[in-house]
Model the fold of this input.
Amino acid sequence: MNTQMQKLGMVGVKHLLAISSCKGGVGKSTTAVNLALAFKNLGKSTGLLDMDLQGPSVPRMLNLHRLESVKATREGKFLPPQNYGIKAMSLGLLLADDQSMVARGPMLSQQVNALLQQVDWGNLDILCLDMPPGTHDVHLTISQQLSLDGAVIVTTPQEIATMDTRRGMDMFKHVHVPMLGLVENMSYFLCPNCETKHHIFGEEGQARVTAERFEIPFLGSVPFEVDNRIAADSGQPVTHLGEHGHRLAKPYYDIARKLIELLEAKKGDAPGKVSIEFED
Done:
């Protein structure tokens, strides 16, 4: 384990995985929560760090938002609370539900450093970082101070979304963070009455085209379903009962398996190189 990770208090964490969209409203946090739970249910000890400081939603999605306090070690580090078998830390656990976090760039960087350095994760196979939208100070602080194993990019088929996604992917290229693949969320809506596919946000495949343009794997598609929204809002994500616990869980488990394979392959691979091909 490299000394930079030790300096930042990430001792014991095998893999650091950023989950990013660079565009708000595409379901990135829902994807991050469900992938983290899928990792855990596939046998990987997993943590989830909510880096969306100004819109922290992880506590509610994991049904941790009613906690009155977060415990700490004797050394003053936070002990991340657990639910459904994964550890999670978020600024949202330290704020009231409606309390805002108003801060300029330097203060944001201080908050980021606090979350990176002052949490005792113990031993984890994978720590997922739920990144905020955009390409600003938080992204730069994380990418420059952490040795990330890679980033997963989440987008929708909508051109406006993929346009911003490409900008975010360009940022990861410039800061030398390998992109492990791209997920197309809200890919289509399947009518429960006639089973017709409706492409509300544009035809499927825009994310695949973007992945091909940046020469990274296309990891899979997730449909646009109201049950997924209800599950996230209620703090009972569709993946928490296992791969067969909910009809919408399977896409997340398929994507999680691909990412585990990629992360394990990167141990002996050159930085930034991804050489695994997946069948459609």
